[in-house]
Amino acid sequence: MPEIDAREGGLIAWQWAIYASGHTTRANLLIHILTVPMFQLGTLTLLVLVAMASPYAVGGGAMMVGAMAAQGRGHAGEPQPPVRFRGPLDVIARIMAEQWIAFPRFVLTGGFARAWKSAASESNQ
Predict the structure, then answer these.
(1) Per-residue b/e over 21-49, b at no fewer than 16 CB within 10 Å?
(2) Residues 30-81: pLDDT tens digits?
């Protein structure tokens, strides 16, 4: 098996290659289906309100932080822990890629449904 943090093909390809293995429990899947839209709305809110010089922009940031805190708890319950971050810029890049690309792709390609079904059958054994 290649090194899990080799990132061959770039961040998006690497994240996608390991994505399903880090999203296998119903608790984590439920957290993600609820908080990814919250993160996305928070991102858009933050950007729009910063552009408008509104002091309420902090609300968008708070939504993003809340979503990340919840997802961190979800990932803590996964059999395979997340790959460690390489540094602050990696944190930002990976979070944005997961929230805006990997998770929506996971849902749209049926990965979420397969993981949900698999988690149910494993809990019944």
Answers:
(1) ebbbbbebbebbeebbebbbebbebbeeb
(2) 999 999 999 999 999 999 999 999 999 999 999 999 999 999 999 999 999 9
CB 75 within 8 A of CB 22: yes
10 C-beta neighbours (distance < 10 Å), count: 9
Asked whether 64 and 17 are in contact (CB, 8 A), the reply is no
Asked if residue 13 lies in contact with residue 97, where contact means CB atoms within 8 angstroms, the answer is no
pTM, full prediction: 0.89
Half-sphere exposure of 81 (CA within 13 A, CB side): 4
Q: How many whole angstroms from its chain centre is CA 44? A: 16
Question: Tokens in use for 68?
Answer: 């990340």
